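User: Just a sanity check before I run the rest of the batch. Below are the structure tokens for the first item. I only need the designed sequence back.
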């Protein structure tokens, strides 16, 4: 069973590591923020995920009902134009500009694997086995791993991945999958920034997480990154820049920006909840607020932020 893995490197880790190792290169990058050449993600003529797709969720390990609701509400916010702008749905609409057409994601089944059926230390290849537990036709199967689950390469090189595989029925059952882990206790400085201080670079105070859970709010950022990559580059021949086995995609190409004026180590200008002091840039269903990363806009060849 063939599978394709897309390694998502947390932007702040890459940019601030570059600042630490190669100051002259980092200076060039910061100057590029002033005189930036148009960013172009090349289209490689492959299929994109357009139309109606079912999102099936596999919860691996222990997630509280509140944690599950934060992530589920994000999915339900993608195609719901109910909240006032800036909204999750307005962010998601940017994906419609990739070979014009909407990706309507409909929440499907949810599978609870609270007994850690494969143990608490998993290889990336086992994500396919977990994802395959859900449906295959017109599906995006999402695996969320709890904070006590150790994943191969988690923290060292990735905060999430996405890829594709086939079901037992052959080509027609080819499905996309993705994985995102909760970094709360393992590597919040890499995978939950800016809700935790980064491990490199300036140690600025972390932002207050909009849903009161730095680990899960960090998961939202990484979920948004791999989900946008899933629909715009599902089979390794969609939109991306660089090598296909380590591509820069719709969100990962945008360098850790969340609001206007962002630069390495600074997420940009954001909205702040007057009651909680939490930072956010998108509203969702059920009164949710989220912090979503910038996404490359094919119409402008630039990274678009909501605020």
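Assistant: Here's the designed sequence for the first item:
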């Amino acid at each position: 069973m063939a599978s394709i893995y897309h390694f998502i490197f947390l932007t702040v880790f890459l940019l601030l590591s570059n600042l630490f190792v190669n100051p002259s290169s980092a200076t060039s990058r910061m100057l590029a923020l002033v005189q930036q050449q148009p960013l172009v993600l090349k289209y490689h003529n492959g299929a994109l995920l357009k139309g109606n797709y079912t999102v099936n969720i596999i919860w691996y390990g222990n997630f509280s009902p509140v944690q599950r609701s934060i992530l589920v509400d994000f999915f339900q916010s993608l195609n719901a134009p109910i909240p006032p702008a800036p909204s999750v749905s307005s962010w998601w609409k940017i994906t419609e500009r990739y070979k014009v057409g909407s990706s309507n994601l409909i929440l499907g089944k949810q599978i609870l694997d609270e007994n850690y059926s494969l143990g608490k230390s998993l290889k990336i290849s086992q994500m396919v086995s977990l994802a395959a537990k859900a449906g295959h036709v017109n599906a995006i199967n999402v695996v969320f791993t709890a904070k006590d689950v150790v994943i191969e390469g988690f923290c060292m090189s990735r905060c999430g991945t996405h890829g594709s595989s086939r079901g037992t029925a052959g080509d027609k059952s080819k499905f996309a999958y993705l994985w995102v882990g909760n970094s709360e206790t393992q590597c919040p400085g890499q995978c939950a920034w800016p809700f935790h201080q980064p491990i490199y670079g300036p140690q600025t105070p972390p932002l207050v997480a909009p849903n009161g859970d730095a680990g899960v709010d960090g998961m939202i950022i990484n979920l948004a990154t791999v989900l946008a990559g899933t629909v715009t580059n599902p089979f390794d021949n969609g939109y991306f820049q660089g090598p296909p086995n380590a591509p820069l995609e719709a969100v990962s190409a945008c360098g850790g920006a969340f609001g206007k004026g962002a630069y390495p180590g600074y997420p940009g200008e954001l909205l702040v909840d007057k009651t909680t002091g939490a930072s956010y840039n998108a509203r969702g269903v059920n009164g949710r607020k989220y912090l979503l990363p910038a996404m490359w806009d094919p119409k402008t060849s630039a990274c678009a932020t909501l605020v």
